[in-house]
Structure formats: C-alpha cells, structure tokens
Design a protein that fits this description.
The protein is built from two helices and two strands; from the N terminus they run E-E-H-H. The protein is mainly alpha-helical.
C-alpha cells in the first residue's frame, strides 16, 4: 500500500567556504646608474597599481557588511584571520574615512 507523502517541513542550509586572504607582495628593484649616478626604481605592475593595498573583493565585503547588514565598522568580526586582521582593520578605517568623506558631498 502506497501512502501519499508531502513536504511537511523544509529549510535551507547555506555555507560559504573559509575566507583565506590572497596576499601578493610587490617588491620594487632599483639602483643607481654607474655612469651618471642617477637613481631609478621599477614601476608598479599594471594590475597592481600603487595605492590602497586592498582588492575589490575585500572592499566589497566590508562595504556589504557595513551598509547592507548595518554592522558598525568597529564591530566587524575579523579577529580569527590572525595577521590579516590588522590589514582588514586598516581597510575598515580607510573605507570608513572615505564613506564619511563621501557622505558629506
């Protein structure tokens, strides 16, 4: 005898993979010309220009947590990332300063 079945409860379980920072150190070689003693230094790679060390994904995450989820910058939970926590904290401060600047425009 086949008893009819129906969904009586359903839920979703959503998980994201652990966040692991991808850090690329850019070192600039330089020196002095042996003929004229003029100093020189290498240029930054085109895909990693000088400026903010924080990539678009990290900036997007911080902005999402702050403005979509309403989490204050001071309360963003980045402690478990160890050494990266200091970088994220610096990113939060930079983005916070920028958002205060743009809010006044």
């Amino acid at each position: 005898m086949d008893t009819p079945q129906f969904v009586c409860e359903a839920y979703d379980h959503i998980e994201i993979p652990p966040i692991a920072p991808h850090v690329t150190r850019v070192s600039f070689l330089g020196g002095a010309c042996p003929c004229c003693a003029r100093k020189f230094k290498a240029e930054a790679p085109q895909d990693m220009p000088k400026g903010s060390p924080f990539g678009p994904n990290l900036r997007a995450l911080v902005i999402y947590l702050r403005f979509t989820q309403g989490i204050a910058f001071e309360r963003l939970p980045f402690g478990p990332f160890g050494r990266t926590a200091a970088l994220v904290e610096q990113a939060v401060r930079i983005i916070a300063d920028a958002s205060i600047f743009w809010a006044g425009v």
